[in-house]
Amino acid sequence: MIGIIVFVVLAFLFGSIPFGYIISRIVSKKDIRLSGSGNIGATNVSRVLGLKWGLLSFFFDFMKGYLPFVLAMMLFPELSKAWLLWMSIPAILGHNFSPFLGFKGGKGISTTAGLLIAYHPLLGVWSLISWLLMLFLFGYVSLASIVALVFAPLLVLFSSWLVSHPLAFYALLAMALLGIFQHRSNISRLISRSEKRMLPFSLFKL
């Protein structure tokens, strides 16, 4: 039990490392939180510093979700993957509420993606496909992210997999609800049609 508690705490601290903020400080000597949307995530880093730095930020944030789960499988082979999923969620919480930034942070999409890919690659790929589809259809990263967050638990809910993996479903649902909560301001802007598009083109206009 002590080992699990230590792991959870370390997962949270690892997730708390604000890579987008650090990259911005190194590259531009500026606080990324004062530019663009004010978010420390890959989307805002791309918008403010350029695509290559946004991709680098995405990679580091992705690994914040991926590595804890992989490490948990090595350290706790006796536990089910569903329990390991729950034990790794604090990495997302760390990203969203980093103690290094006054318990503020990003929206957790990249970190969630990393954890989802580590837990179930096929489920992660299908969520990524849903993200790409919504992005090209409507042009909003926030809308694409929200749909991708919901897609994973819905896919499990409407499949026979739910019967044998109910604990995993609730973990995926918790991850989705956490991500939606972090996007509450984006949801308000989407409703008021004031949200900024990431892509200059899209097939549909909201």
Note the main attributes of this structure.
mainly alpha; single chain
SSE blueprint:
Layout: H1 2-15, H2 19-28, H3 42-49, H4 51-75, H5 81-88, H6 90-96, H7 109-119, H8 121-138, H9 141-157, H10 161-164, H11 166-182, H12 184-192
Going by helix content, strand content and strand pairing, the class is mainly alpha
Q: How many strand elements?
A: 0
Mean pLDDT: 89
Oligomeric state of this protein? single chain
Please give the largest β-sheet.
none
- Low-pLDDT stretches: none
Shape: globular
Helix content estimate: over 70%
Order of helix and strand elements from N to C terminus: HHHHHHHHHHHH
**Measured on Cα atoms, how large is the radius of gyration?**
17 Å
Q: Please report the distance between the alpha carbons of the first and last residues.
A: 49 Å
Beta-strand content? under 5%
Provide a descriptive summary of the structure in words:
There is one protein chain. This protein has 12 helices and no strands. It is mainly alpha-helical and 206 residues long. The model has no long low-confidence stretch (mean pLDDT 89).
Please sum up the structure shown.
The chain is mainly alpha-helical and about 210 residues long. It is built from twelve helices and no strands. The longest helix is centred in the first third of the chain and has 25 residues, at about 50-75.
